[in-house]
């Protein structure tokens, strides 16, 4: 005599609970974490830009005396950094040209890491991770970029499946 096989695992079985939990996590659209990544990293750069504007003379002195970037005069470097820290975060928050904004901020992060504060790599990795994700995967469907792409390429997936 052989026993009949079990038809399904009980709902309270740990394996079933883990599988159900993972299925729920998988159901979250990637646009939601992409939005949070965009907001978080944008705010870091925006605050830095705001601090630079508080005292322009101090900012230029910082670029001249501490940062000492090669090839760029301190005034130009300060202007470029401050502009990037104000324009690129807005691009990320709106999701409008988000990949371009992420590329600019990632480039700035790499310059800071390589030439200014090489021992601050833990912070720079925290910035580079979200920026790299946005650069490679885009801002998600909660963005103006997505709306523009759908306008010109209607075959793109709907938000429910993205």
Number of strands: 0
What number of domains? 1
Helix proportion range: over 70%
Computed over alpha carbons, the radius of gyration is 23 Å
| Large-scale geometry | elongated
Termini gap: 51 Å
Report the biggest beta sheet as strand number plus sense, adding barrel if it closes: none
Order of helices and strands: HHHHHHH
How large a portion of the residues is in β-strands, by DSSP E? under 5%
Unreliable spans are none
Q: Structural class of the helix and strand makeup?
A: mainly alpha
Mean pLDDT: 91
Count of discrete alpha- or pi-helical segments spanning 4 or more residues? 7
Keywords:
72% helix, 162 residues, mainly alpha, elongated, 7 helices
What features would you describe in this structure?
The chain is mainly alpha-helical and 162 residues long. The chain is elongated and about 65 Å long. Helix content is 72%, strand content 0%. It has helices at 14-27, 31-54, 56-67, 74-94, 98-116, 121-137, 144-152. The longest helix is centred in the N-terminal third of the chain and has 24 residues, at 31-54. The mean pLDDT is 91.
Briefly say what this structure is.
The chain has 162 residues and is an all-alpha fold. The protein is 72% helix and 0% strand.
Set down the secondary structure blueprint:
Layout: H1 14-27, H2 31-54, H3 56-67, H4 74-94, H5 98-116, H6 121-137, H7 144-152
């Amino acid at each position: 005599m052989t026993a009949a096989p079990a038809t399904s695992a009980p709902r309270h079985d740990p394996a079933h609970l883990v599988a159900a939990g993972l299925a729920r996590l998988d159901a979250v659209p990637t646009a939601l974490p992409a939005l949070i990544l965009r907001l978080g990293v944008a705010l870091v750069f925006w605050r830095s830009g705001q601090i630079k504007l508080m005292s322009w003379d101090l900012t230029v002195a910082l670029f001249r005396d501490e940062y000492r970037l090669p090839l760029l005069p301190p005034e130009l470097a300060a202007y470029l950094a401050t502009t990037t820290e104000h324009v690129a975060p807005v691009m990320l928050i709106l999701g409008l040209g988000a990949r371009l904004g992420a590329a600019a901020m990632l480039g700035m992060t790499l310059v800071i890491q390589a030439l200014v504060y090489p021992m601050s790599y833990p912070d720079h990795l925290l910035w580079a991770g979200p920026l790299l994700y946005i650069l490679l995967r885009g801002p998600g469907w909660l963005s103006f970029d997505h709306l523009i792409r759908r306008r010109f390429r209607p075959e793109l997936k709907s938000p429910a499946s993205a």
